[in-house]
Amino acid sequence: xxxxxxxxxxxxxxxxxxxxxxxxxxxxxxxxxxxxxxxxxxxxxxxxxxxxxxxxxxxxxxxxxxxxxxxxxxxxxxxxxxxxxxxxxxxxxxxxxxxxxxxxxxxxxxxxxxxxxxxxxxxxxxxxxxxxxxxxxxxxxxxxxxxxxxxxxxxxxxxxxxxxxxxxxxxxxxxxxxxxxxxxxxxxxxxxxxxxxxxxxxxxxxxxxxxxxxxxxxxxxxxxxxxxxxxxxxxxxxxxxxxxxxxxxxxxxxxxxxxxxxxxxxxxxxxxxxxxxxxxxxxxxxxxxxxxxxxxxxxxxxxxxxxxxxxxxxxxx
Amino acid sequence: xxxxxxxxxxxxxxxxxxxxxxxxxxxxxxxxxxxxxxxxxxxxxxxxxxxxxxxxxxxxxxxxxxxxxxxxxxxxxxxxxxxxxxxxxxxxxxxxxxxxxxxxxxxxxxxxxxxx
Lengths: 317, 116
Hints:
The complex is a heterodimer.
Chain A: E1 10-15, E2 27-28, E3 33-34, E4 37-39, E5 43-45, E6 56-58, E7 63-71, H1 74-82, E8 86-93, E9 96-103, E10 114-120, E11 123-140, E12 143-152, E13 154-156, E14 176-179, E15 185-186, E16 189-197, E17 200-203, H2 211-214, E18 219-222, E19 226-234, H3 239-246, E20 250-257, E21 265-281, E22 290-297, E23 307-312
Chain B: E1 3-7, E2 17-20, E3 24-27, E4 31-34, H1 36-45, E5 48-49, E6 52-53, E7 65-66, E8 69-70, E9 83-87
Antiparallel strand pairs in B: 1-4, 1-9, 2-3, 5-8, 6-7
């Protein structure tokens, strides 16, 4: 093989029927970058035996970690939501579907696991048992961008897929409705970063089955969940700042539509957010006085720390 | 036409765009005739460089990277999710591929601009 270039690569995904068992991709989506990496966990031996060097290595437990960055497309985000601890309700009628995702607290496992197939320089990497440890939706390059931190149980060798590509439009300028609190649209925010962190970790068990001589994780578990948002707003008066000092919670809704289509959108809601930081900054003579905020969520009256609603034509099968 | 291609991706709506690199953009749910020329263009678009650094010390190219671009697999050799490609019986003989709609143009993938 010759020297490759990243633009020639691809990433595809599929839901797994059995967690950790590879399924060839059923959905490909454009990515901005990825860093999935096999972690070998080598165990180096240093017993006392008339040597002060490593005297050998025992192959250790393995997993795959890394992240995938992509434009947050409505037909793609849903797949990754399923790889978190989400209760997802699908409503609507063909072809326009609505996926309403609410975090669950029932298990340490995601709703579904994914197989991710990455082709780099025509070489295929098949990652199995992939879960989303953390999802971040943020404004980058004026578009809504999705960053997902992945932990996978193992890696397998697979044959090359042939991708197909859709024509979904990213969410960009002119397509935003920011509500703080939820029903009140504000016009002073230019950037935000919203994240759901499930704190996933590979869990190893004593076994002898599976790829890489059975050294992969038995499953990937998830821990305490944290929903957080940061944002930058123009600072114009003390109204919001007083709420920060008083520790008054607010609801936040951010809705982004693709081409202003009501049938293609990504919305997230934080029902009960507290401002943990409120920096009012004067950086330089010519700078606008801005407020940099950090919002931390607690559960709302419905018991939900957040909710995601995606309108799309994608049929999850 | 030598090949007939049917696209039926369950996750997509009927009529949704499906872009296949090197072949064009097609509507989900449709059946399309693919010419030899289009099929060859697909192979070229999926070409692989099997070259390498010349490791023969006797060679005048010793230490030099020598490209060796090979066409990719044919349409019937690849597996594409939700896409079925068959060699048409008309390849050998004569007429009619039946009620087939074709919207693809060789080497002219439709790109909506800003689309994925």
